[in-house]
Write a structure and sequence with these properties.
The protein is globular and about 50 Å long. Helix 1 runs antiparallel to helix 2. It is of the alpha/beta class. Helix 3 links the parallel strand 4 and strand 5. The chain contains four helices and five strands; from the N terminus they run βββααβαβα. The protein starts with 5 loop residues before the first strand and ends in a 5-residue tail after the last helix. A five-stranded mixed sheet has the order 3-2-1-4-5, with helices on both faces.
Length: 130
């Protein structure tokens, strides 16, 4: 029987912490958006429309990097304090490659590494999500 691979992703619009759930949960990757505060200021100097286009393009690239990692898992938990997790979920549900991946979304506050790992352990240990 093939084992179920589970991934928790704490994310906001600037960074995503990808944490694999296994016997020893650990962060496997951190993905950061390239749209930093400095980049926003530079883009804004060229006009608000330019800045918004640059931000959308950068977020799209950020979501694509996360999506590529998700393809390796059967169950995924998206959690964090902003709407980024929902935006990513909405993009993924339009793509047939993600149709067989069970995804859950949870609203949380900012968390340190320990809190993120505990949250994932509690989520995937629940009888509802095994």
């Amino acid at each position: 029987m093939k084992s179920t691979k589970k991934l928790g992703i704490w994310m906001d619009h600037s960074i995503a912490h990808l944490i694999e759930f296994s016997e020893n949960s650990f962060e496997i990757e951190t993905i950061e958006t390239k749209f930093t505060h400095e980049e926003k200021e530079k883009s804004l100097a060229k006009g608000e429309s330019f800045m918004h286009n640059k931000e959308q393009q950068t977020l799209s690239d950020y979501y694509k990097k996360i999506a590529k990692m998700i393809l390796n898992y059967n169950k995924v938990l998206l959690f964090g304090p902003t709407s980024a997790k929902t935006e990513l979920f909405n993009i993924l549900k339009e793509d047939d490659r993600f149709a067989k991946i069970k995804m859950n979304i949870k609203e949380t506050d900012k968390m340190n590494a320990y809190q993120r790992e505990r949250f994932i352990i509690e989520h995937f240990s629940s009888p509802l999500y095994r």
